[in-house]
Amino acid sequence: MFSAPDDATAQRMRTARAYACTTLTLTDLAEKPVWGYAGRTLSGAATSAQGTGWLRVVAERPDKAHGKLWDGPKTAQQLLPPEIPRPVLHHLHDWQAAGWAYRAELYQHTDATVISRSPVLEHDPALPDAWWAQLRTALDSLAEALTERIAVREEYIRRAVPEYTGCDVGEIEWSTAHGDFHWSNLGGPDLTILDWEGWGRAPVGFDAAQLYLYSLHTPATAARVRRTFDHILGTPAARVAELTICAQVLQAADRTPFYKELAGLVKEYLDATCAPKRCVRD
């Protein structure tokens, strides 16, 4: 999804991945591994005596190697219901080297293909009805999962939504969300949901709202998202989720290319849907 980082970071992460393969007795199969943002993660297929898996290596400074993002995949494996389709996390291994903390996560390999290389959808993926039905079931189940993890802080919502959308935030209703529910984290043709780093409590409808707004370049798919999740997005409670996603996009538009591409459509959506008495946008 992201480009390779600077040479020093890339070499450090490749060294860490090679160390993880040696330690876990894996053979690296990734000819073109997948980079995370700014080289924070490096992922790709690997094989062992037990078969093919997916190895993800995460790096943080030692004082940040804890908390929500660090432990998200582990807690998702432990706490979320099995009917939410996601790769099984088989093994974790932590170590430190040269001022960095690393975690190797070995997952079940999946044959699913990510729907989009970019989080923002550019082409209609023509997904089958069964995929959409599975998606609705998965998010409904996730919303009811109990957790104290926080995906989106209330302080952020009450500050960023008025600042970037001009809209007020009233009462917030909460449920459990994936927290980064975009098209690069969804696989098909059998539904698979990837990247569970940030899951936790968020405004009701947060995942459905993100998927909808990230589909605005493809009106047919956006309409399908809207129909599939009308039982959520059609409620007043989900409006806070929509505004929060809009604020996130507009806040990051000047530094993240795919947000910049989406910002114009988000502004149009806000202009079309904001109630005049509750918005003060220019």
Automatic annotation (TrEMBL):
Superkingdom assignment: Bacteria
The protein's name: Aminoglycoside phosphotransferase
Organism of this sequence: Streptomyces caelestis
